[in-house]
# Entry
Amino acid sequence: MFKKDGSSPSNIRDVAKLAGVSIATVSLVLNDKPGIKEGTKRKVLAAAKKLNYIPNIHAKRLFTKRTGCIGLIFASHIDDVLSNLVYSRVFRGASKSADRNRYNLISIYGEKEFIETHSLPRIVLERQADGFLLIGRGISRDFAYALKEQNVPLASVVSLFENSNIPTVSPAFKEGTYIGVRHLASLGHRRIVFIDSPFEYWSSRMRIEGYQAALLESGIGFEEELVFESDLTAEGGYIATKKLLDDRVDFTAISAVNDTTAIGAIKALKEAGLRVPEDISVVGFDDIELSIYSDPPLTTVWVPWEEVGSTAVDVLLDVINGSHDGREMIELPVKLVVRESCRDVSKGRGSQR
# Structure
């Protein structure tokens, strides 16, 4: 910022002169280095504020050997990322943590370049970021291992695959699926369809374990014919539900992998002349903004996706700074949100819950 008299902006020498300290001391204070007395630190910060001093980011990077950037690598195409309500919440949380720690975010979309050329993105090879956050279940094992071979700090949102040895922040998928299915069982449902994500995903296996645990605790046997695979989209939920209807599967409730899938399932049920929740009860997962506006408002499992994003950036910064505690998995708690898409069938028609 220019001075009021129109002269050049203040520099580090001006701050040092006003504070009565050396340039090196100003640099140490502004870079939050240890070993500086509190009184000296206060003088330097007061001088910098009075002069509206803005540090030269390029000089700071030379001093710290850091870029001040974090790379967000999404498995999906940019259009899919921008339209995904979960990704938007993760990004919002990541942005808050980055801002708090004075970092910038750089987004990289998809693995197309790696898949086609077997080479990593330039941002990785040229070390344009201090670390990378992997986001999305579609990140492949080969891609993740290629990144690890570059010895760059890594963390991920949702585990990519078992034994990745990459610090990960994830919702409690097993617990979340468990509480959704237990809710349906508590309402008297015994034939509960589970529409899952692609079965190769680690999160899919966690959900299946939650589904099975809820059935077991409710005294309900597991039937493989009640588990369907989808692609996490509304269309996927619609297609899976059409299939189970065409196959004349006997069921009274659906637990869906996410709210988007649940909304697609509800559309297929309505087209078949079935009412929700009078004929079929439906539970979602994520509690996206649209879930309260679905018809009927969707009972779902709330996930703190924004906190997942912010925590993941915090973990990555710990890895960058060499202070990570070694935990490979951090699971954040979820909770049931009851609205109007489920019916109690334990005593006749019952009520909507």
Q: What stands out?
A: Residues 305-321 form the longest helix (17 residues). The CA atoms of residues 196 and 229 lie 5 Å apart. The longest strand covers residues 69-74.
